Amino acid sequence: MFDENGDENGQETYTFANGDKYVGAYKDDKMDGPGTFTFATGDKFVGSWKDDNWNGQGTFTWADGAKYVGAWKDNHMHGQGTSTFPNGNKYVGAYKDDKMDGQGTLTAVNGTTYIGAFKDDNKHGQGTFTWADGEKYVGAWKDNHMHGQGTRTFASGNKYFGAYKDNNRNGQGTMTWAAGWGQADGSKYVGEWKDNNMHGQGTMTYANGDKYVGAFKDDRMDGQGTWTGVKGDNYVGSFKDGKRNDWNSQEQKGIVVIAVAAAATAVVVLLYQYRNRK
Fold first, then answer.
1. Residue 185's pLDDT is what?
2. Per-residue model confidence as pLDDT tens digits over 64-74
3. How many Cα atoms sit within 13 Å of 255 on the Cβ side?
C-alpha cells in the first residue's frame, strides 16, 4: 500500500474507498508503527501496528461508546487490558483472542464485583463474587455459574460451605444460620442439598440443643430419622412434612375424637327435640 504521496515509508495519511482513514507510520508498504485508523462506522483504533495488523499497545473505541485500552496481537485483544462497556460495566484483566480469558476483575454498575478467573468471556475457575448488599461467594465457577466447592456468606450473616451446581446448593454442604434468623436462629445443618433445599441425609443441630439426624425432603424432616430433644422428648422413627409421625397420628386421633363427640352431641340434641314433641 502506498500513501497519498506515493511513498512506501514514512508518516502519511491514506483514505480508503469505503471512507475508512489511516494516519500514521508505514514500512515496506504496510501500516507499521504508531497510527490511527478511523472507520467510516465511527469506530477508531489508536496505537501500535505491525505488518498491517494491530500489534502492541492500543486503544479501540466503538461508536456505541465501548472502549478497550491494552495489548493487541494480530488485530485481537490479547494480553492485559481494560474494557469499559456502554452500560458502564468495567473489566480489567487478561484477554485472549478478543475474549476475557485469565485473571481479571469485572465491576458492574449495579454494585456487584467479580475477581477471579475467566474463560471465553465467562467466569470460569476460582473466583470471588460480591453483591452490592455485602453478600459474598468465594469458590469455583463454570460458564458464569457457581459450580463446585464454594463458600457463600449472606448479608443476613447466614453462611454456607459446600457444593454448588448451576448456581444452586447441590450435594454435600453445611449451612449455619445467624442469630436472629427466626426459628433457625443459630442452627446448623450438615448434609445433602438439592436445588437449594435440604434434601437427602443430614444432621440439623438447633441453637437450643435439639438435634435431628435423618432424612430431609424439600427443607423438611421427611423419612426415617432420630430426634434428640433437650427436654427428653426423644423419638426414633418416621417423619413427614417436618413432623414426627406419632404427632401426625395423635392429630388424626384428635380429629376423630372431635368428630365422634360432635356426632354424639347431635344425637342427644335430636333425641331431646323428639321427646319434647310428645
1. 80
2. 999 999 999 99
3. 6
Confirm if 85 and 92 have CB atoms less than 8 A apart.
no
- 12-19 long-range contacts (CB < 8 A, ≥24 apart) are none
31, burial (CB in 10 Å: exposed 0-12, middle 13-18, buried 19+):
buried
**What are the residue ranges spanned by the domains of the chain?**
1-63, 66-73+80-277
- And the C-alpha cell for 228? 434428640
Distance of CA 86 to the CA centre of its chain: 23
Residue with cell 321427646: 275
Helix, strand, coil abundance in the chain, percent, nearest 5? 15, 55, 30
For residues 264 and 255, what is the distance between their CA atoms, to the nearest angstrom? 14
Nine-digit cell string for 155: 448479608
Question: Which long-range CB contacts under 8 A does 77-86 form with residues at least 24 apart?
Answer: 86/62
Instruction: Give the pLDDT confidence of 21-70 residue by residue, as tens digits.
Output: 999 999 999 999 999 999 999 999 999 999 999 999 999 999 999 999 99
Rounded Cα gap, residues 226 and 238, in angstroms: 8
Residues 6+ apart with CB under 8 A from 58: 45, 46, 47, 48, 69, 70, 72
Task: Report residue 197 CA to chain centroid gap.
Answer: 16
CATH dotted code for 66-73+80-277: 2.60.450.20
**Rounded to 5 degrees, what are φ and ψ at 241?**
55, 40
Q: How far apart are CA 238 and CA 254, in angstroms?
A: 20
Q: Which residue has the cell 455459574?
A: 145
Largest CA distance in the chain: 131
Distances, alpha carbon 24 to alpha carbons 129, 131, 217, in Å: 42, 45, 69
Least confident of 34-38, 94-98, 124-128, 178-182: 178-182
